[in-house]
Amino acid sequence: xxxxxxxxxxxxxxxxVAILIFxxxxxxxxxxxxxxxxxxxxxxxxxxxxxxxxxxxxxxxxRIIQIYNEFYNLLINDQWSxxxxxxx
Length: 88
Fold this sequence. Notes:
Blueprint: E1 2-4, E2 18-20, E3 37-42, H1 58-69, E4 81-85
Parallel strand pairs: 1-3
Antiparallel strand pairs: 1-2, 3-4
């Protein structure tokens, strides 16, 4: 999973960052070995504008968690995210 974050989120940089989450259960012989989808969540426009930083509020964090929890029920055209199938 890849979660795109807004710029000015951290005090040491103003660039946009991304959080990468790897599922170890997708490794060969594991429970989710056949799962090939990758979830991209674009949360780059979800923040509370601030003077020096753009913090995420609880509503932004809860939206990201909601999308993650509904991963397999998402529509391809959801404005926040899309599912990319791994090419063999």
